[in-house]
Amino acid sequence: MEQNLTAKMEMLMTALDQVRKYKEIVASMADFAVITALSIATALAFLMLAKFGVLFGWFNPWDGIAGLLALLTVIVLVGGVVFAGFWVNRRVRHVKVGQWKPTLEEGAPGAIKLLQELNWENIFKDIRRAKMGFTIYGLTRVFISWLIIAVVLNFAAGFLSSIVHVAEINLTLTMDLLSVVIAVFINRKDLQKRYEQVGNLDALLWELRWFDNEFRRADFET
Amino acid sequence: MKKAWLLLVLILVIATQWTFLSAFHSVSESQITNETSAVVISKANYAFMRAHIEIFPEYIVNYTAQTLQQANVTLTFQDGSQKQITENYAFDVFLTRTASHFGSISAVTPGYSILISDDHPINAAVMSNVSEDFFTYGVGSSYLLDRIDVYWFKIEGDAHVSISGYGLAI
After folding, report:
1. b/e map A135-149, b = 16+ CB within 10 Å
2. DSSP helix/strand/coil, B145
3. Do B50 and A56 touch (CB under 8 A)?
């Protein structure tokens, strides 16, 4: 019985550690969005500088400066999103987990002590937020991927059409649609993973409600 | 909360940049000319435009000297000045903004390929085998000139003309 309680408690605390990480992902979304938006704004500034430079004759489209600005546009855009991803990952890695382990090593008294310290309402709230965070994170990821791919493809198409003089052909719509397909394709595993995680959280929520009921009943019986 | 405001500001900046970028336009044209031809660069008067024009006189065989040489091409500009070229020649034309944008523009000169609209505020065209009337009545006295700015020059001789145009319509 004692072993069963400790094992169940370990499962619960491990799951809650996971929820804490997911909660951190949600909290990091603001940082992710700010860094990404900053990189997009910087990339667009380089693009505008390139267009102004060509228009006002500061340099020609085939000059090294124009090429450098084009390269910087892509580097800043892709680099910004990659950095934002690393930043979120860093914050999630720094979430303190497993601090309950020494207490749980005390056995049943430790497990009961941990149970008593749990704030059930906050836990349920955190899980609901984590679920919402998954959806937002997944959609944002697909959207940002689409945006980057669309910009890169349209840029490449524009460059290509300026070389081979096919400017009359409007490639924008084709490139935008192609970007959607590529964005969904490269994120398909992540989307699937997040879908499964939402399902897992649903299961966890039900299990926690059961734990809560059991714990309250046990409290009442004592 | 500070991050939300920062994000809002950044989104507004991006939206402004995006809108501004959509005001840039480009056009390219490449044609072989023979006899009397015209190069016509035109734009809506609310736009800035820069056109890079490259003229490559056609190569002809000099059977006597057994060599290839480039054709003799004469350029006649709007002010009447002339330039003879016998080798590749390139120059830039910058047309500045001459008026504000009031109402929409949709201008087409029949047969002369000058198509200017709000969607296409800049245009570059090379027209082969044009008559002298074109320079007098076609470009020179177009009823559209109060809405568009036109730069043109005449090419006499066989050449390959390539034009890259960049514009900003604001």
Report:
1. eebbeebbebbbbbb
2. helix
3. yes
Q: Residue B36: pLDDT band by 50, 70, 90 thresholds?
A: confident
Of A178, A48, A194, A126, the closest CA to residue B22 belongs to: A48
Q: A48 burial class (0-12, 13-18, 19+ CB within 10 angstroms)?
A: middle
Which of A51, A60, A81, A91 is the best residue to mutate to test the B interface, defined by the most B CB atoms within 10 Å of its own CB? A51
- Residues B26 and A46: their CA atoms lie apart, in Å, by 18
Q: How far is B21 from chain A (nearest CA, A)?
A: 7
Contact A55, B50 (CB under 8 A): yes
Beta strands in B10-95 (DSSP E): 24-33, 36-44, 47-57, 59-62, 67-70, 73-77, 82-85, 89-95
Q: Do B11 and A37 count as a contact with CB atoms less than 8 A apart?
A: yes
* Per-residue pLDDT tens over the stretch B86-109: 899 999 999 999 887 666 666 655
Give per-residue pLDDT as tens, B45-65: 889 999 999 999 998 887 887
To the nearest whole Å, the CA of B13 is away from the closest chain A CA by 7
Task: Tell me the ipTM for this assembly.
Answer: 0.79
CB neighbourhood size of B81 (10 A): 9
Determine the longest span between alpha carbons in chain A, in angstroms.
85
Q: Residues A159, A164, A167, A170: what is their CA dihedral angle, to the nearest 10 degrees?
A: -80
Four-residue CA torsion sign, B122, B124, B127, B132: positive
Indicate yes or no: CB of B28 within 8 angstroms of CB of A61.
no
In contact, B39 and B155? CB cutoff 8 Å: yes
Q: B126 in contact with A at a CB cutoff of 8 Å?
A: no
